Amino acid sequence: MDSGLPASPLVVDRTATDPVHVQIAAWLSTAVARGELVPGQRLPGERELAERIGVSRMTLRQALAELESQGTLVRVPGRAGGAFVAEPQVEVDLTHLSGLTDQLRRAGRRAGARVLSARRLVPDTGVARALGLTGRAQAYEVVRVRSANGVPIALERSWFPARLYPGLTDHPLSGSIYSVLDTRYSRPPVTAEEHLTPVLADAEAAEHLGLAADGPVMLVERTAYDATGTPVEHARDTFRPDRVRFLVRRTPDDPTTLRAVT
Predict the structure, then answer these.
(1) Listed residue (131, 133, 151, 146) closest to 177, CA to CA
(2) Where are the domains of the chain?
(3) Which of 163, 160, 126 is nearest to 143 (CA)?
(4) pTM to 2 decimals?
(5) What is the pLDDT of residues 46-84, one digit of tens each?
(6) How many CB atoms lie within 10 A of CB 181?
(7) 20-85 is classed in which CATH architecture?
(8) What are φ and ψ of residue 207, in 5° steps?
């Protein structure tokens, strides 16, 4: 997509209370909200953009960094890189246990899942404990890159007890795995415990999610259970925080005690 600028020009007010870089960030952010700049559109290069606005490149970089931290822009290094208008963030609802595929589809996004590996193995101690496995009991490990409208948003690493899902890797795994567990085995997960931890991306996550080394990511560690309370999945999912936001709906512990707050 061709680079461009908002239809409404920016007139920098150097006497204003807001610093110049804040004015630039607000101008570009407003243009995105109005649809003057659309997702995937590339802004002019730093030198050209700074000259057209009439500011220093250092001031411009401050504005771009602020917009990147807000998730409005994505900056890609290299000759073919630059500053691009980011895709709107994907909202992941942690209140209900539904697969990411279904959530993306309901949000009108094209869900993608690229399988990096799928194998049967003896998992590490932490995974075995979460799944209630003992001795040399095996699990299927499935590693996938998840995307929304073709944009990578998460690196998933999931384990499923082999004794509960024999032949799991014989089925297509590029769609909803939860659907496979339901339709092929009649044993889908119905409840889960999830823990969210901000961490730094390792080399694998950085490569597949298009991040700088040691960039910030959100790790979601999940153990899911079937209707009998048996653990059927353990997962460690790494999300790009600039492309995903999490939703949790909260209700009172005891609805009968709810009182209006004025």
Answers:
(1) 146
(2) 20-85, 90-247
(3) 160
(4) 0.71
(5) 899 999 899 999 999 999 999 988 778 887 765 556 788
(6) 23
(7) Orthogonal Bundle (1.10)
(8) -65, -50
